[in-house]
Design goal:
single chain; alpha/beta; Rossmann fold; GMP Synthetase, Chain A, domain 3; 8-stranded mixed beta sheet; 15 helices; 31% helix; globular; ATP binding; ANL_N_sf; nucleotide-binding; AMP-dep_synth/lig_dom; AMP-dependent synthetase/ligase domain-containing protein
């Protein structure tokens, strides 16, 4: 049986991408440093990455080794990742929002011998765990006895040496952990670059475009666009969420990758500005913008419609970390409230019983699992429709709508199936909660955990009154019979949210559900 990922590793194209940077003086990285705007050409970046790679070899890092990269988006993050490609090591991408203990645990589980980090507390923790540590910045904070990336670049030696050929995976990433504990898996470059080639054809971008990157580079789609952009000669603006509007105004990117919660914040800023929406939105995204890609979670259809009405070229897209892209809104076919039409290079169908979205794709991102420090390649059957654990519907025009996760369907003792996502949304909206989680309680009766910002939780009587009309509009078996108020939001640190802010149901129930004071909902 033929497969799209086999035990025989494919040649990795990233070394050639890096060598192609050597003569590229036109395209560049633009970023802030100590209040100054800096420009580093692709050629200079390639030389810096080569010098860092030489320094890593001097510290004992070689082909097949694992190196943790833990920090916010920045030029040194890019150098660390590219240096791993040049020495043949696997970068282990760690979210900067991960609690230090979790980041260290993943680095150890992955078999890392060296860690880059921009967090002084994490640096101490990595060292205590026996890892060599390099500070992910231009200089290490005073009192932190580790070299900085700039130190190693300055003393690393020949940065122009050709990249050695390599095959197989180049990085280790993590599943989201929304359904169970996060799992580590390896990724090859080929499906990422193939996907971006298709994106370039569909959205019409390439050399001369400028891409704003401010989400964590540990997020695989961010790096997918980075590597392709290095090959295509894009400019990159390296920023962060707090400085995104200022950097967008200063550098006028043409391409922008974002997530719904950032767009919600932008909507709030626009509302506070008092300016006409079209003017205010353009002030945030700039006049040069050609495509805004939003994914990772559902986007409010009303917000999408508002952005489109303001003249912004926004496209909601959908995929999974393991399977890659699945649905795309494009300039030729776009509908707010959907994730677009199925990818033209694959096929999507719905399970007839559960409506689970299933995809057949030649470009799954998952290469293999990392188990006990060893890579176990995944064998893909190109004729098989793979499950996504998402539930959806296809409308008459072929647009795909994601309704929620398969785990959001609860089977009650009566045998009835309840889809809790719309119930949670309605209850949270009615009560003014930041998050609502509905789950079966004793006897299988539904109950709701309602989370509020610290100090803003209403009384139980007020919550009961707010929930009553929602309950009356539901089927009897969908109604919540009790609720609990939590006067703070769940956190990443306690394990209730993923590093990207998605709720982890099983942990929320264990941490908050067991200790909650439940109030009976009248009616």
């Amino acid at each position: 049986m033929s497969t799209t990922a086999t035990a025989a590793p494919r040649a990795c194209s990233l070394p050639a991408v890096l060598d192609g940077m050597a003569g590229e003086e036109g395209a560049a990285f633009l970023f802030r440093r100590a209040g100054q705007a800096l420009r580093v050409s692709h050629a200079a970046c390639r030389a810096d990455a080569g010098a860092l790679a030489a320094a890593l070899r001097g510290r004992g890092v070689g082909a097949g080794d694992r190196v943790a990269v833990h920090g916010v988006t920045g030029y040194e993050w890019v150098l660390a990742d590219l240096a791993c490609v040049l020495v043949g090591a696997l970068s282990v991408a760690l979210y900067p929002s991960a609690p230090v203990a979790r980041a260290v645990a993943v680095a150890r589980e992955s078999g890392c011998g060296l860690a880059f980090t921009d967090n002084p507390d994490a640096a101490a923790a990595f060292r205590a765990a026996g890892l060599d540590v390099v500070f992910l910045g231009p200089e290490a904070p005073e009192g932190l006895d580790v070299p900085a990336v700039a130190d190693l670049v300055a003393g690393g030696g020949d940065g122009g040496a050709p990249a050695p050929a390599r095959s197989g995976p180049f990085t280790v990433v993590s599943t989201s952990g929304t359904l169970s504990e996060p799992k580590l898996f390896t990724v090859e470059a080929a499906p990422l670059l193939f996907t971006m080639d298709r994106f370039a054809e569909l959205y019409g971008f390439g050399r001369g475009d400028r891409l704003l990157l401010y989400l964590p580079l540990s997020h695989l789609p961010q790096r997918m666009m980075l590597y392709w952009g290095l090959r295509a000669g894009l400019d990159f603006v390296l920023s962060d969420p707090a400085h995104m509007p200022a950097d967008s105004a200063a550098h006028q990117p043409t391409l922008h990758v974002t997530v719904p919660r950032v767009l919600e914040h932008v909507r709030w800023r626009v509302g506070k500005s008092g300016a006409p929406p079209a003017v205010a939105y353009r002030a945030v995204f700039g006049d040069a913008i050609r495509s805004i890609f939003v994914g990772s979670a559902p986007t409010d259809p009303a917000l999408m419609a508002e952005l489109l009405a303001a003249g912004l070229p926004v496209h909601e897209v959908y995929g999974t970390t393991e399977l890659g892209m699945i649905g795309l809104n494009t300039p030729a076919a776009r509908k707010p409230g959907t994730v677009g039409k199925p990818i033209p290079w694959g096929e999507v169908r719905l399970d007839p019983d559960t409506r689970e979205i299933q995809v057949r794709t030649p470009t799954p991102f998952l290469h293999g699992r990392l188990v006990d420090g060893c890579v176990e390649p995944r064998h893909w059957d190109p004729d098989r429709f793979e499950p996504t654990a998402d539930v959806g519907e296809l409308d008459d025009e072929g647009f795909l709508r994601v309704l929620g996760r398969l785990r959001d369907f609860l089977v009650l003792p009566s045998g009835e199936k309840v889809f809790v996502t719309p119930i949670e949304t309605a209850l949270a909206t009615a009560a003014g909660a930041g998050l609502c989680q509905v789950a079966p309680g004793p006897g299988g009766k539904l109950r709701a955990l309602l989370f509020f910002e610290a100090g803003s939780a209403p009384t139980a009587d007020d919550v009961a009154a707010a929930l009553a009309p929602v309950n009356r509009g539901l089927h009897p078996w969908e109604r919540v019979k009790s609720f609990a108020v939590v006067d703070r939001m769940p956190t990443v640190e306690e394990g209730c949210l993923t590093e990207t802010g998605k709720p982890r149901r099983h942990v929320i129930e264990a941490v908050h559900g067991a200790a909650a004071e439940w109030t009976r909902q009248p009616g």
